[in-house]
Design brief:
Annexin V, domain 1; 2 domains; mainly alpha
């Protein structure tokens, strides 16, 4: 049998340190993908993989691995039940497009292995995009993150932290896959005002004034009053080229979340109809 394993195949040995219990049995790529689709977190991570690794998959990037693709792969390796690992190490059987994709993604091998190590509890803080991606790859953490998005809109605008928002932050903090979120570092590639959100969260939700002073001192002086800037709603700020780019990313992420919710609703509806048909069939048999 011609077994085609991703160039990252030995990544499974590293991943076993991070995610215990990984099996060495290879699944067909179709079965692995279906298994991943059955889990909300893995489905989100897989969607991000195909979205952010598009240039790598197409072969446009051969020398290096884009940061967004690297983060997407790390998220995929962080999924529950090792569903993402199963997809990465799946058996292509006859090759074709599947084998080609695996060979091209091999360019990310070394960087992904290095990034996995930074997810340890004793490792240095990671970028906020990577921390969010790891959380989204876990179904429970993804649900907690969505709850946070739904109940902290006033915090995002720099207005205040409501009781529901604080509750959602408490729920999020209890998720193992969210452990890197509060200590993450903003690198300017986020699709939101990361620095202002971190400052507002500490000040309004945790009331950590000392932490705020340190954060403000660590931000380069732009000549403006930062305290006034952090209270100003983000949507009133002048849109820069980076803001426009981030807005597009936000739309793609929201579209992915919408598709995820739709897939979940369709699955529940299908299960409900199946149950109804079985009930009707059982009633007809008895009569």
């Amino acid at each position: 049998m011609n077994v085609c394993v991703l160039g990252l195949s030995h990544i499974i040995l590293i991943a076993m340190v991070v995610v215990p219990g990984i099996s060495n049995d290879l699944q067909s790529c179709q079965a692995a993908q279906l298994r991943c689709h059955a889990r909300s977190g893995c489905l989100m991570a897989l969607s991000n993989f195909f979205l952010h690794c598009q240039t790598v998959i197409k072969g446009d990037t051969k020398a290096s691995c884009p940061t967004e693709c690297k983060h997407a792969l790390v998220s995929l390796l962080s999924t529950e039940d090792n569903a993402g690992v199963a997809f990465i190490n799946c058996d292509c059987h006859k090759g074709g497009v599947c084998s080609e994709r695996k060979e091209r993604v091999a360019v990310c091998q070394n960087e992904v292995l290095e990034s996995i190590n930074v997810l340890r509890e004793d490792a240095q803080p990671v970028s906020c995009n990577l921390a969010r991606g790891v959380c989204e790859a876990d179904t429970s953490c993804l649900a907690a993150l969505q709850y946070y998005y739904d109940h902290c809109s006033r915090l995002f605008s720099g207005v205040r932290c409501t009781a529901r928002c604080r509750n959602s932050l408490e729920i999020l903090s209890r998720q193992p896959h969210a452990s890197k979120l509060r200590t993450c570092k903003c690198d300017g590639t986020e699709d939101y005002d990361c620095e202002a959100l971190k400052v507002n969260t500490e000040a309004m939700c945790f009331h950590n004034k000392r932490k705020i002073r340190n954060d403000i001192n660590s931000i380069p002086d732009s000549g403006d009053d930062l305290s006034k800037e952090s209270d100003e709603p983000y949507n009133k700020k002048k849109m820069t080229a980076r803001d426009k780019k981030n807005a597009k990313r936000r739309k793609r992420r929201n579209r992915a979340l919408t598709n995820l919710k739709k897939a979940q609703r369709d699955k529940k509806l299908k299960e409900k109809k199946s149950t109804q048909r079985k009930t009707q069939k059982s009633s007809s048999t008895k009569s």
